[in-house]
């Protein structure tokens, strides 16, 4: 862990409370952009499990992407896309991939859309808590740092 900020802690706590990976990360930061908690939950709910449990792009990284977009002006896509590529590279360096099934070491999407129960056994075999923490660290290091330096 690189940072131990309140928001990084909040993201990991939200995940441990049962929110999906995208919700945990997005909701820990969304108030910075004027979103209330309930709205933030709704916005980020479909990104968990690699987009609706399809094991595609990691939900935690999807939240990083959403927050990077909120940092942009909504017009300059080039700048946002460049930042997303930088963030993806940082995420890959720490985790090996931005793809959920690769992070989990599973061949593909489960048959069911229903999330598994978060039992202690389930959590032992999942890297998700650490990935959520890493995603929050990336926001701290690459997005909020830029915000405070005026970039």
Q: Can you walk me through this structure?
A:
- This protein has 151 residues and is mainly α.
- The protein has one domain.
- Helix content is 64%, strand content 0%.
- It contains nine helices and no strands.
- The relative contact order is 0.18.
Strand content: under 5%
Q: What gyration radius follows from the Cα positions, in whole Å? A: 15 Å
Report the structural category: mainly alpha
| Count of β-strands | 0
Distance between the termini: 25 Å
Low-confidence stretches: none
What's the overall average pLDDT, rounded? 92
Q: What about the largest sheet?
A: none
SSE succession: HHHHHHHHH
Q: How many helical stretches?
A: 9
Helix content: 55-70%
Number of domains: 1
The coarse overall form would be: globular
Sequence-ordered SSE layout with sheet pairings:
Elements: H1 6-16, H2 21-29, H3 37-44, H4 48-51, H5 59-71, H6 77-95, H7 100-104, H8 120-124, H9 128-149
Helix pairs in contact: 1-2, 1-9, 2-3, 2-5, 2-9, 5-6, 5-9, 6-9
């Amino acid at each position: 862990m690189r940072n131990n900020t309140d928001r990084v802690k909040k993201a990991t706590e939200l995940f441990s409370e049962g929110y999906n990976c995208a919700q945990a990360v997005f909701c820990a930061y969304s108030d910075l952009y004027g979103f209330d908690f309930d709205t933030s939950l709704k916005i980020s709910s479909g990104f968990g499990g690699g987009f609706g449990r399809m094991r595609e792009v990691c939900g935690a990284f999807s939240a990083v992407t959403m927050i990077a977009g909120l940092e942009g002006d909504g017009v300059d896509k080039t700048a946002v896309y460049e930042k997303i590529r930088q963030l993806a590279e940082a995420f890959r360096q720490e985790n090996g991939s931005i793809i959920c099934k690769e992070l989990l070491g599973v061949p593909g999407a489960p048959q069911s859309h229903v999330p598994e129960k978060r039992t202690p056994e389930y959590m032992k075999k999942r890297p998700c808590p650490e990935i959520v923490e890493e995603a929050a660290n990336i926001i701290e290091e690459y997005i909020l740092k830029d915000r405070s330096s005026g970039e």
